Automatic annotation (TrEMBL):
Region entry Disordered, spans: 267-287
Signal peptide: none
Listed name of the protein: AB hydrolase-1 domain-containing protein
Stored SUPFAM superfamilies: alpha/beta-Hydrolases (SSF53474)
A matching Pfam family: Abhydrolase_6
Domain named AB hydrolase-1: residues: 48-252
InterPro entries per record: AB_hydrolase_1, AB_hydrolase_fold
């Protein structure tokens, strides 16, 4: 059955504790069919996969059980058009009834990456916005040999977001996903993590920030580039925009596209310290 990209592809959701996922190719072309490995490889050798964040369904809770694309993941949007100059672009969607950890370890995401490598792409780049950035990080930590070569996390709440502690505004079925983004949940997950981010995967945090504030309007800058990533030398790139326009703001789109093309290297202590002062106006805390 073929549905348009403005509708949902209802994936198998039985048993109920599985994450329903789907992936579409959004450039080149605008196929309404979920992507499958083509008979002939693409002329391009690198693929970008766009991964969305939280999508609250207060009026229609059943939609949380289905994978829905966000508008910015669809063909011909600013971010897709910019990336399509150098990459084949795909958009990945997932149901939101389980914690982010379950999304990251889902068979759907593993299969999506494996099939891209099978299709001949030498580089697979995950671009995750908000919770999508958390999912992307968890994926490369848990599956370092899956084939992802780079992660660009945009406005990602790695250390959690306070609004996720609020118990209203979303349907009960989405509670596990929302609550897994709370500061306490993320701090505990980081503490218990047995597979920290390796150096083989290029990684960057795009920190979104409002002027004269330590937040993008939803996620604090300290959460977007937390201490554990600083210690690993993960670079941070500042973009002056709010959380909700991060994937359409011209400066953000330009910078994300540049980062997708560039080779990313880990920072040393001096570079990290300089960025701390620029982002937070503070030196590295004493141990």
């Amino acid at each position: 059955m073929i549905l348009s990209l403005t509708t949902v592809m209802v994936a198998c959701v039985a048993p109920c504790d599985e994450v329903a996922t789907e992936m579409w190719q959004v450039a080149p072309g605008t196929s309404e069919k979920p992507w499958v490995v083509p008979a002939q490889p693409s002329e391009k050798t690198a693929a970008v996969v766009l991964i969305h964040g939280l999508y609250v369904h207060p009026i229609a809770p059943a939609k949380a059980k289905q994978p829905w694309l966000r508008w910015w993941q669809k063909p011909k949007t600013e971010i897709v058009t910019a990336l399509a100059k150098d990459f084949d672009v795909f958009s990945f969607a997932y149901s939101q009834t389980l914690p982010v950890e379950e999304v990251a370890r889902s068979a759907g995401l593993r299969d999506a990456v494996a099939n891209l490598r099978k299709a001949g792409y030498k580089d697979v780049i995950l671009v995750g916005h908000s919770a999508g950035g958390v999912v992307s990080r968890l994926f490369v930590e848990q599956f370092p040999d899956a084939g992802v070569t780079k992660v660009i996390a945009v406005a990602a709440p790695f250390a959690g977001v306070k609004i996720a502690t609020v118990k209203v505004g979303y349907p009960k079925v989405q509670a596990p996903f929302v609550e897994s983004l709370a500061p306490g949940a993320r701090v505990e997950a980081t503490r218990a993590n047995k597979t920290p981010l390796g150096r083989d995967v290029q990684f960057v945090s795009v920190v979104c920030k409002l002027k004269h504030a330590d937040t993008d309007g939803l996620v604090r800058t300290h959460s977007q580039w937390p201490e554990d990533l600083q210690q690993l030398g993960v670079p941070a790139v500042l973009v002056d925009t709010n959380h909700f326009t991060a994937m359409e703001h011209p400066t953000a789109v330009k910078r994300i596209s540049e980062l997708a093309r560039e080779k990313l290297t880990r920072w040393g202590p001096d570079e990290t310290e300089k960025a701390r002062k620029e982002l937070f106006g503070e030196p590295k805390p004493m141990k």
